[in-house]
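#lab-general

N.A. 3:47 PM
ok so I finally got the sequence cleaned up, no stray characters, all 219 residues accounted for. can someone with queue access submit it? mine expired

B.Y. 3:52 PM
send it over

N.A. 3:53 PM
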Amino acid sequence: MINKIQDKTEKKRLLQLVKYEQLARSKGFQFIAGIDEVGRGPLAGPVVACACIIPEGLFFHGVNDSKLLTPSRRHELFLKLTSEKSISFALAEVSHIEIDFLNIYQATVKAMKKAIDKLAIKPDYLLVDGMKISHNEIPSEKIIQGDSKSQSIAAASIIAKETRDQLMSEFHEMWPQYCFNEHKGYGTKKHIEAIKKYGPCPIHRLSFKPLRSDLTTKL
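B.Y. 4:20 PM
back already:
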C-alpha cells in the first residue's frame, strides 16, 4: 500500500502512475484493465499480451515499464504481482504461424483481445499501451508509452515480458544453436549469424526480414 512506501519521491511517482486509472474511476468505471504486449519485434516466437486489473489503492514499489527494469528487479516484481490475490490478470499468446498469416499488428491486437477475454473479472474500461483497439462494448483509451505512465499497463508489461522470456528460454532448450535464452528472438548479430548458418527453425517468423529475404533462400 502507498502508506508503507517511505520514499517520498517514489510515493509521488506512484500516485502519478495511477492518474489514468483515477480519471476513469471519476467517470464511473470500476474495473480498469491495463493492456500491454511483448514480442512485436523479434524474428522468432509468439507475441504475448497481458491484461491486468489492479484494485484502487494498491501500489507496487518500483513498478515501471519492463524495459526500464533490470532482469532481477523485473522478476521480483513479476513474483509480487502474480502472487497478489486481489490482482486479476490474464495472458494470451499468438504464435509465429499466425503472425506470418495475419501480420504482426493484427496478431498483436488478437493477443490483446484474447487476454482481455480471459480475465476472471470483466473490465469496464481499457488502458492500452500505444495501440487503439476496439473490443465489443468496452471503451478503451490508447496511451503512448503507457507502460511508463500507468501502473496497470506497467504491471501488464512486466508479466508479459517475464512470461515470454521464460518461453523463449524453453525454446532455447529445443534449439540451443540460436541462443534464444540470450536475445529472446530479437534480431541481434549473433541471432542473424545463427540463421545464416543453420537456417530458420520451426518457430521463426518467415514473413520477417531477413527471413523473407534472399538470406535464407540461398542457404
